Amino acid sequence: SWLWNGRVRFPYSESPQFYSQDYNIPVIQDFDAMFGAHVISGTEKPADEFRVILLGDSATWGGHVTPEHTLASEINRLNLTTCDGRTVKAYDLGYPWPSMLRDMLILDYAKRYDPDMVLWLVTLHSFEKKPVDRDFLVPHAERMAQVVAEYDLKLPKVYSEEVAEPTFWDRTIIGQRERLKSLLLNQVYGLMWTATGIDNANALPQDLPPLPQDVLEDVSYFDYKSPAEAPVLVRSLMVDVVRVGNALAGDAPLVVVNEPIFIVSGQNSDLRYNHIYPRWAYDAYRLSLADWMSAQGYPYFDFWNALPSSEFSNDMAHRDNDGEARFAELLIPILQEFSCP
């Protein structure tokens, strides 16, 4: 961030075919490189700054908006100040694909940048075990194991074998060749990012069809086939990660926010909120999370239906420019509450 401009969000691109358009490449396997490319690492924290870090998935990262319209950028555009006159400055530490465990490790690393507040944006899919977690966690297996042990994190048994440390072969130059390639390209693309400000091909001008308002007549949710399985779904949610996140955040208040989702109004809307979430599964999640957060005494806010369907782009959680701006305004009371205790 001293030779090239620091990025306002972590380097990420969907696949190699987009790299040359995004001037971006994922370096999730190396937090030093990932944070080193981010604007948060560019300078020392100013004395008059109230630093807010945002954790979450692609909706927080800004899946279909340009850097100047991410949620963090829209918060900064509000020019909020604290009771003691400090400027509220938000930093986008979201990363595409929902993963509470990855967010936890990002928070653990981000502590060195002295956050004053943490906004953790979540949805039902965030709390579930997913195959993609392996890609996020294996490169950080050693630190993951330390956090699990230090905070007695309760995880599904399947994670014990999936978060194995890299093998000897993985640690060799040959085994690290893809990582080294990514690190080099990350530096090269820094020049193009600085010159163009482009870091997300999905946000380039394009005609996106509106999201369909009709959904299938189906009440299944991945492996869960009916409302009768709601208790099983609820028990599988990794809510204990929030407890560890609060411990990692230390004196900085950690606020969990259930992010807005796209809600259909057409055929079979009585069965599903959208193509991902059947009503029974999402309702059970919201109720159980609210009860658990209240029992633990953790701050929690639910904005699940706060935005109209017209303010989503290509996904049930991806907001467009208007949606990001409106959501930022909805968060003002929360930011004011926790910046002026």
Structural class, by secondary structure, is alpha/beta
Order of secondary-structure elements: HHEHHEHEHHHHHHHEHEHH
Which range best describes the helical content: under 10%, 10-25%, 25-40%, 40-55%, 55-70% or over 70%?
25-40%
In angstroms, what separates the terminal alpha carbons?
Answer: 33 Å
Taking pLDDT < 50 over at least 5 consecutive residues as the criterion, the unreliable ranges are none
Strand order of the largest sheet: 2-1-3-4-5
Radius of gyration: 20 Å
**Percentage of residues in strands:** 5-15%
Mean pLDDT: 89
Q: What's the total number of strands?
A: 5
Number of helices: 15
Overall, the morphology is globular
Largest beta-sheet details:
5 strands, parallel
Comma- or semicolon-separated keywords:
341 residues
Structural summary, described in words:
By secondary structure, this protein is an alpha/beta fold. It has 15 helices and 5 strands. The chain has helices at 16-22, 31-36, 58-61, 71-77, 100-110, 133-137, 141-151, 159-162, 168-171, 177-196, 230-236, 240-249, 279-296, 321-330, 332-339, and strands spanning 49-55, 87-92, 117-122, 254-258, 300-302. Strand 4 (254-258), helix 13 and strand 5 (300-302) form a beta-alpha-beta unit. The longest helix has 20 residues, at 177-196.
